[in-house]
Amino acid sequence: MADIVNEETALERAIALVHAGQPVALPTETVYGLAADATNGEAVALIFEAKGRPRFNPLIVHVADRAMAERIGRFDALSRKLAAAFWPGPLTLVVPLAPEAEIHPLVTAGLTSVGLRMPRGFAARLIAAGGRPLAAPSANSSGRISATTAAAVEADLGDRIALVVDGGPTPVGVESTIVKVEDGRVRLLRPGGIAAEEIEAVLGAPLLRGEAGGIEAPGMMRSHYAPRAGLRLAADAVAPGEALLAFGPKRIAGADRAVMVLNLSPVGDLREAAASLFLHLQALDRSGAPVIAAESVPQTGLGEAINDRLRRAAAPR
């Protein structure tokens, strides 16, 4: 089983494992990631193997600074503007892959573009100290609920990796927002930890929406983030035997007979709801209820990311 080591004492061991071509589970501000050297094909293959992830699904490359990012991807004025506004932080920029980039082709799944993000915290320290960009999808079995605690990572992947770095619960709780910058336009590929409205305010223009075709970034598969139980969205009543994922101060009919009730935010705060989402889904999934009924969440701000995760979690598998 994996060792769980506090982030204050884990850096040297994490560097040694990355340099040895092994994946390491680590905290980021969004969710826990399963990180390996993005330039080492064998190390990247171990990420796919540990997660059971399809190899046509690309990985985000995490960088220490803008200079490292610009050695990997080709940045234009819009890309630089967004990086200056939101890095370090939960924004992934999909840009053309630089011809001289040393990223292994497994990372990009054969695409001519690459997703880049500059994280905060332990992940940033590891990249800077180790000197390697890290490919790092969420640290969970492919298609399942993302982990926001070290314990959740260990319970899922503990028999497949050597080290889980414990940085406590992740503060954002959902994955990064992903935008693609191409030909002077910015397209939203995946809502996430930065609301679309914040990005539009920086751009001074609306984001393009709608998928251009195919999988261009992580998190775009129709079924993703899924509990083992069924998930019923926009529920107006709880059926016998169901668990309830609640939101806000008012309950739907039948909440008193739910197997378990967990509230994303009793006061209706979307940031609190995002931080609670995956942890609550995991707990409700463990309740033994065959179906989780989910109350409606507003579509504004971070609600767009929450609803995206819920729709994919409820999709046919």
From TrEMBL:
Pfam families: Sua5_C (PF03481), Sua5_yciO_yrdC (PF01300). L-threonine binds at T30, H62, R117, A136, S176. ATP binds at R53, N57, S138, S146, R190, Y225. Gene3D superfamilies: DHBP synthase, Threonylcarbamoyl-AMP synthase, C-terminal domain. Residues 8-194 form the YrdC-like domain. It is found in: Cytoplasm. One of its GO terms (molecular function) is double-stranded RNA binding. It catalyses: L-threonine + hydrogencarbonate + ATP = L-threonylcarbamoyladenylate + diphosphate + H2O. Its EC number is 2.7.7.87. GO terms for biological process: regulation of translational fidelity; tRNA processing. The keyword ATP-binding applies. Keywords: ATP-binding, Cytoplasm, Nucleotide-binding, Nucleotidyltransferase, Transferase, tRNA processing. One of its GO terms (cellular component) is cytoplasm. PANTHER family: SUA5, THREONYLCARBAMOYL-AMP SYNTHASE. Required for the formation of a threonylcarbamoyl group on adenosine at position 37 (t(6)A37) in tRNAs that read codons beginning with adenine. Belongs to the SUA5 family. This is Threonylcarbamoyl-AMP synthase. It comes from Nitratireductor arenosus.
